[in-house]
Amino acid sequence: MGEITRKKKKINWFMVMLLVPALAMLTVTIIIPVFVVVGMSFFHYNLLDMGNIRWNNFSNYKAVFTDSEFIRTFGRTLVYVCGTVIAQFFIGLGVALLLNSGSLRGRKVFRSLLFLPWTIPSLVVAVTWMFIFQPQYGIVNYLLGLGDYSVLGSPKTAMLGVIISAVWKQMPLMMIMLLSGLQTVPEDLKEAAEIDGATGAQKFWCITVPCIMPVVKTVTLTSIVSNFQMFVLFFTMTGGGPVRATTTLPLYTYETAFSGFNLGKGAAIGVCWLVFLVIFSTVYNRVLSSKEVEY
């Protein structure tokens, strides 16, 4: 018994040593910065007044919630996130179903080609779509006959232009993840449902959807969180314009903290943003977990 106990202790210490590098990286890159930002949000912290950093209780949070621009920015962010995630989910699911069907030839080739946009850096994607939407020689204006109309220069269509570029960039990952989920759906369940007279739609909604729900929950939540953090596309393609039509939370935080030199208020915006995502993620996980099935 003594030897077995000693061996277990050695194995446990070995596991701990394997986890140390990952935990250290997590602490340095995430945990410490989060605590620093939360602390900064309770201070008067202005880059133009670095000699007068002082505790100011909840003044930064009061400034955030009484700022009408924060509410409008939050609303624009929700529009972008909802539009991007919904579009890429349904397009990705449709393509995944097509690639999962046995009737499609050359599925591996199509899968590789369709996955390419996800491998392209966001900055390159932004510049590419700026040329595509260019008023004078852009292919979109040529095909749709828009003349000199600037898609990214109009408050009515600028957000739509960014959403299209984001969907083009992110949809391949959604497609691959959903495809992997579809390939794990038990065929015997489908066959049994078919014998019982189930239609294709019934098999999809009653068998396929519940079986892939864990994948759906993961990929959609990951997409929501990552799109709340989208900065590169907006900063490069529109800069938050025109007339602040595409100013989202990341840009607003950047403007407040670095263009406006108010690090305290910028940190408070980041904390509000973090709290919202934590609450949303918790509720989202609980709601979708009730839709999952075990097999």
From TrEMBL:
Location in the cell: Cell membrane
Limits of the ABC transmembrane type-1 domain: 74-284
Keywords: Cell membrane, Membrane, Transmembrane, Transmembrane helix, Transport
Segments traversing the membrane: 12-45, 78-100, 112-132, 152-168, 224-243, 263-284
InterPro entries: ABC_transporter_permease, MetI-like, MetI-like_sf
Membrane topology per record: Multi-pass membrane protein
A Pfam family reported for this protein in Swiss-Prot or TrEMBL: BPD_transp_1
Presence of the UniProt keyword Membrane in the record: yes
Coiled coil: none
Family: Belongs to the binding-protein-dependent transport system permease family.
Protein name: Sugar ABC transporter permease
Species this chain originates from: Hungatella hominis
